[in-house]
Amino acid sequence: YNLQGQKWNHVNLTWSLRTRRLDKVDHGWVRSDLNRAFQVWSKHSKLTFREVNSESADILVFFEKGYHGDGYPFDGPGQVLAHAFFPGTGRGGDAHFDEEEEWLVADKTSKDGTSLFRVAVHEFGHSLGLSHSSVPNALMFPWYQDMQSDFELPNDDRIGIQVLYGVKDEKSWGNIPVYNPQTSIIPVLSTTVPTITAVTRSTAITSYTTPVTPSKPTTSRTMPPRRAEVAVVVDEKPDFCNTSFDAVSIIRKETFFFKGKYTWRLGPKGLYAGYPAQISRLWYNLPSNMTQVDAVYERQDGKIVFFIGRKYYVFDGNNPLPGYPKPLTALGLPDELDHVDAAIVWGHNSKTYIFSGTMYWRCDDETEQMELDYPRDMSIWRGAGYNIDAAFQWHDGATYFFKNRDFWKFNDLRMRVEQEEPRSIGEFWFNCTATGGSGRNGDR
Amino acid sequence: RRRTRSTPIFDDVHGYLMKFGYLPESDLETGNLMDGNQLHEALRTLQTFGNIPVTGKMDAATKQLMKKPRCGVPDISQPTGQRRTKR
Known about the structure:
heterodimer, A: 444 residues, five-stranded mixed beta sheet, B: 4 helices, 2% strand, globular
């Protein structure tokens, strides 16, 4: 067995099926099979599982197809059938099944179909903290194998789950509850289910000392707010402790944070006095009705590029170059693109990248045109998610992705965020405390 | 009516090995050329993990393994598995 490195810090877990529409199979049988899959793990450990109808359950189960917002698109029938996230907050613990598979429930068999129970047992192993095992008959072997529904948990998996959560100390295991299609009720194991009065989505980070492998990225469950919703009242100076940012960039070796009409300047000695300053005071002749910049970056020739809506501006120092602004289409970006989210020179290969929504492009600096083979899906920037607010390469050489009030440090070699949990922008970049922040409009 | 099975999106060997952690994904973006040894080593690791004969080559057993339905979670999360160890 192989432990991923994280585990739940409580053993009375809750789960919830969050997919309402399942065309091909009986919803009740699906829940029954999922319940049976959880019981396989609880049978041999101190874990108990309780089904709840709540978004705040520890483990949420979804049936999704194709691109479904987590950077791990499904591929239609065959090949990859499901995936799950290791224990953690937000998406941690959740299991996703490819809706386009031919799922077989209630022990039905078919040459073309796949047993939901069989796949669910494996995926829930990930939800509990187990990685893939190379033991061929183990449940956590990456390639699914047929098995009977009354099978015994293989030793490899049994030891793995018991190392994480301990051995069941009582002989309280009863019969696996079975779905009754007449009543649509799945009975609950009364002997093992503890009393839980409040269902909260738990923090589940407990470090473990065995070989630690990074978990899959965990991002916020909530859909990204629309850009208009993120914007603050632009006529007031935003509080840097309590805001998202439109753009962040290193310009002339100093870090500039942009929000609305304002920018903050962070140098080696910290935040500069007199900031935030109006962007128009530093860079002249930007449109007077501008409410925000979308992205800013310093080109390798030292020119500074601003993206605002469907246009981009190029500055030499404080002054705009003649001939600008130009439409995004002049860069070879598609006509339907109404904004870009971020633009960076990636330190890993010194190429310029443009991000927007779920896609990204690579720009040839010599021709000022997007390269062939782009756009590509942003999922390769694993853990950064879609619809980012900003991205930039900092002095440490690492790439940083900003979204809402959080950010991720990105490992360029491994192509994934260093930590699945985002960190607070205010706390890290501006030394804000977790509780304070309001009213500090850069006056320090 | 039953849908025909889709062509796997990891229909190329490199893509499959990157997707499941046997090769670094940065190569996909940077376009770095990898030497033959790196690919053979990745295949050997895959074959070891999959409990098939370890040849380091794209043989029939490896092709068969790569066609099998599987979980989408990577098998190897760190490149250390492919690192040479000091004697």
